[in-house]
Every structure is written in C-alpha cells, then in structure tokens.
Amino acid sequence: MTHVLRIAVIGSGAFGTALSAVIAQTGKAHVLLVGRDQALIEDLARQRVHEAALPGITLPESLAFSARPDAVADADIVLFAMPSQAQLSAAEVYGPHLKPAAPIVICAKGIEKQTSRLLTDVLESVLPNHPIAMLSGPGFAADIAKGLPTAMAIAAADLAIADYLARSISGQTFRLYASDDRVGVQLGGALKNVLAIACGIVEGMGLGDSARAALIARGLAEMSRLVEATGGRADTVRGLSGLGDLVLTATSHQSRNLRFGIALGRGSALSTQHGGLVEGAFAAAVAARLAEGYKIEMPITQAVAAIIDGRLDIPTAIAQLMSRPITTE
Ligand SMILES: NC(=O)C1=CN([C@@H]2O[C@H](COP(=O)(O)OP(=O)(O)OC[C@H]3O[C@@H](n4cnc5c(N)ncnc54)[C@H](OP(=O)(O)O)[C@@H]3O)[C@@H](O)[C@H]2O)C=CC1
Ligand SMILES: O=C(CO)COP(=O)(O)O
C-alpha cells in the first residue's frame, strides 16, 4: 500500500488555519490542524468556519482537527504556525510527540526577543534531530484561505529538503519556492514587519507616498545589511521574503503591523494587543540590538525601536533621518 503523506499544522490562529485549509485543498496529504483550545477545535470541526480568525471562509471537509499534543505523532511534516515568541514553548510541548526526524516548518515572522536568537536556532536547540525549515513571504492568511494566488519561500539548510517541502505543500493556488538560505528568508519576514510599522507611521502622519517609497527602498538596504552580516544572502532579500513581503505589508491595510504604525503616526496609543498580533513591535528592538552588535547602520529600524520604547518622538525621528550625512546609495 502506498503511504499517504500526513501533515500537521500546529496553531489554530489565522495563519495556521489558512495553511491547513490550503494544503488540505491540494488533496495530496491528510492534513490535521492542532490547537490548544479544545472548545475552538470542537467548534471548527463542527462549523468548518473560524469566525474569529477567518470570518466567512469555509474550511475543507477533508481537514481534520485535534487539541491533543500527541495527535502530531504520525505526521511526516509538521508546521509550527504560532507567534515567534511562542515557538520555543510550543517545541517543548509538542517535541516529545513528534515522529523521529520529521521536518519542522516554522511559519512565524520574528526573532526571539529574550535572546536575539534566530527562530531556526531556537528550534534546533530543542529539536536537534529534526530538520528545521522556514516558511515566509508575502501572503495574508485570508487571501491564502480564500484560494487567491499566493507565492512564498520555504528554506531549509539542505536544498533537497526545501524542495521536498515545497512540492509537498504547494498546490493550485499556493506556490512555494525552495531556498537554502534560512537566514535570509527568516530575517526578511521579521524585518519587513518593522519597516511596515515605519510605513504606517508615515501614512498616519500624512507624509505622502513618496516618503513611503523612500522607506521601502532604504529599508530594503537595511535588511540586506543585517542579512549579510548574519550569514544570509542579499539576493534572498530581493525575493519573496524580503522585497515581496515588504511591498505587501507596507501598502496593504490588511497588515496588522501597518495598522499599528498608522495608529502611532496619528498619535493614538494603540496597544499591540488591541490590533491583534504585531510581530514588528517585538522585532524592532531585537533588530536594533543586532545592528549595534554587528556595527551596521539600520537607522529606520533603530528609529522604530526607539519610538516603540518611548525613547524618541516621531517628529524628532523624522528630523534625524532627514539630516543624516549625505551619502551614496
Ligand atoms: N495572519 C497572517 O496573515 C500571517 C501571519 N504570519 C505569521 O504567523 C504567525 C502567527 O500569526 P497569526 O496566525 O496571524 O496569529 P493569531 O494571533 O491569529 O494566532 C496565533 C495562534 O497561535 C497559537 N499559539 C500561541 N501560543 C502557542 C503555543 N505556545 N502553542 C501552540 N499554539 C500557540 C494561538 O493559540 P490560542 O488561541 O490557544 O492562544 C493562536 O491560535 C506570526 O508570526 C505571523 O507573523 C505569516 C504570514 C501571514
Ligand atoms: O506577514 C503578513 C503577510 O505576508 C501579515 O502581515 P501582518 O502580520 O502585518 O498582518
């Protein structure tokens, strides 16, 4: 009998639910969505709609659900679709139940706040016997779940594993490109959130589309510097999980990071809780710290970090950015 691929997606929020739905839709694998909230999981199995995260979107009949950590035991591939700061605790809870050597795919955009570690390093420290891959790039959960065309990057240390994962997960509407640059792919996702907050501030203050375009281009230069300093490649930054995701998040009001920045620019003290998850608010301080450690210039990122920490007001930040020494591009 041929083995049918089994994929488990852990994290029943917007992204995890969307990924599980789109993968189930391919018909290539048995897909299981695993969440912590028993009542929500029972509701999803009954209603096939996640009203809180993906309102009005019907989930496929073939998608299975569980709230038990040991339900991941027979999964050939496991996606970790919870926020960046929860990846470590999730690895500790689900790790003991994983199938030996099953590839783990991190589906979060951030850097560990406490230690400044990359998420691949965080998971490798807890799950040393599993290949750890990273999925990132432009794609809103709602677009993915609706079956709109989306393309993202998936990176593993071994390109053959990235290729296997890309082929296993991709379908008619959701297309993955394989890479062996885990650093570039994950930092692209983490840093674009910080830059999206900056673009939101510009929008909230009514500074114009020209300023936004300048931020995108100079932000991309900052991203390249940190990616290269950390051992990644600049060409990855010009791809889906860099330029692609930055353009999406810096321009679409679907983005929580952009909306958070707009609120800051308008002077409203929106907390990172009220607008939903704002990964860039965590990543800004870490990225600024890393830049300092590597002695590279990331003035936009550093300004966003200082604004969020309350160390800098927005007009002063703008004046400082505009009065930096004139230099070459
Ligand atoms: N939404 C989007 O469009 C996209 C999101 N992403 C990324 O995906 C990640 C998740 O975002 P998103 O789904 O939107 O966030 P949500 O806030 O919608 O959902 C987060 C989910 O993670 C679960 N969770 C939190 N901690 C743990 C844990 N320790 N173990 C297991 N599950 C946990 C929560 O469960 P509970 O309800 O039980 O607390 C919740 O279901 C982020 O890094 C984000 O940047 C990437 C691309 C697109
Ligand atoms: O990463 C995303 C789309 O690619 C989602 O962006 P937000 O987290 O800002 O909503």
From TrEMBL:
One of its GO terms (biological process) is glycerol-3-phosphate catabolic process. The keyword Coiled coil does not apply. InterPro entries: 6-PGluconate_DH-like_C_sf, 6PGD_dom2, G3P_DH_NAD-dep, G3P_DH_NAD-dep_C, G3P_DH_NAD-dep_N, NAD(P)-bd_dom_sf. Residues 181-318 form the Glycerol-3-phosphate dehydrogenase NAD-dependent C-terminal domain. Pathway: Membrane lipid metabolism; glycerophospholipid metabolism. Keywords: Cytoplasm, Lipid biosynthesis, Lipid metabolism, NAD, NADP, Nucleotide-binding, Oxidoreductase, Phospholipid biosynthesis, Phospholipid metabolism. It holds the Pfam family NAD_Gly3P_dh_C. Substrate binds at K109, R256, N257. Its EC number is 1.1.1.94. GO terms for cellular component: cytosol. Residues 7-160 form the Glycerol-3-phosphate dehydrogenase NAD-dependent N-terminal domain. Its main location: cytoplasm. GO terms for molecular function: glycerol-3-phosphate dehydrogenase (NAD+) activity; glycerol-3-phosphate dehydrogenase (NADP+) activity; NAD binding. It catalyses: sn-glycerol 3-phosphate + NADP(+) = dihydroxyacetone phosphate + NADPH + H(+); sn-glycerol 3-phosphate + NAD(+) = dihydroxyacetone phosphate + NADH + H(+). NAD(+) binds at G11, S12, G13, A14, F15, G16, A141, R256. The active site is at K192 (proton acceptor). The keyword Lipid biosynthesis applies. It comes from the Bacteria. Sn-glycerol 3-phosphate binds at K109, G137, K192, D245, S255, R256, N257. NADPH binds at F15, R36, K109, A141, R256, L277, E279. It is found in: Cytoplasm. Catalyzes the reduction of the glycolytic intermediate dihydroxyacetone phosphate (DHAP) to sn-glycerol 3-phosphate (G3P), the key precursor for phospholipid synthesis. Belongs to the NAD-dependent glycerol-3-phosphate dehydrogenase family. This is Glycerol-3-phosphate dehydrogenase [NAD(P)+]. It comes from Peteryoungia ipomoeae. The lineage of its organism: Bacteria, Pseudomonadati, Pseudomonadota, Alphaproteobacteria, Hyphomicrobiales.
